[in-house]
User: What shape does this take?
Amino acid sequence: MLKLYHCPNARSMRSLWLLYELNIDFELVEMPFDQKYTRSPEYLSVHPLGRVPCLVHDQTTLYESGAICQYLCETFDKEDKLGRSLGHKEHAEWLQWLHYAETVAVHGASLVQQNIIIAEELRSPVVIKLESRRLEKAIEVLNDHLNGREYLLESGFSAVDTAVGYSIHMGSMFIKISEYKNVVSYYNKLKNREAFRKSLPKDVNDPLEEIEV
Ligand SMILES: N[C@@H](CCC(=O)N[C@@H](CS)C(=O)NCC(=O)O)C(=O)O
Assistant: This one.
């Protein structure tokens, strides 16, 4: 049994996208991003913090998107099409980008709190400015790395592009990424993947609009 708990546009989109890339059968449990569902006793008995993603595979439960990515590749991608297992020359780099995805996403998550979740009178312009700047710096590093490259790894598309690609997707909701030309062309390429499209929220307005480079 393989089951993914997911909320639209949340970090679980990484796991959903990757499951579609892997083209394997799984059960999708989609919940609104609402504590009525994510903090329900039923869901808290699966994930003690009531967050997403959460992956259940037979007796194994995982609730870190990075761990889920590595686990899915190690379990279902024995030929290293999307993973780069121990011994592969890109293994260390693959791990680095897998976890760098969270370095980017934490700033996006903070901006979700500041712009959407907390009451307007509690929002802080200083925190918004700081987090936006830190997000921009993290995107700048990606922009430099992507110079002359199609994907994060020299050998081509891999699971770490789903991890980092989601972080760009999330970050682009809060900062203007159009000045980061390499990031924009990379993101436009990722957005054309069928698995990415399938992982988008169904009610999204114009998800596939290309950003001008
Ligand atoms: N480091 C975790 C972060 C998980 C996380 O915080 N997910 C957010 C959605 S992006 C969540 O579920 N938030 C709901 C909440 O905190 O109530 C991961 O990468 O899976």
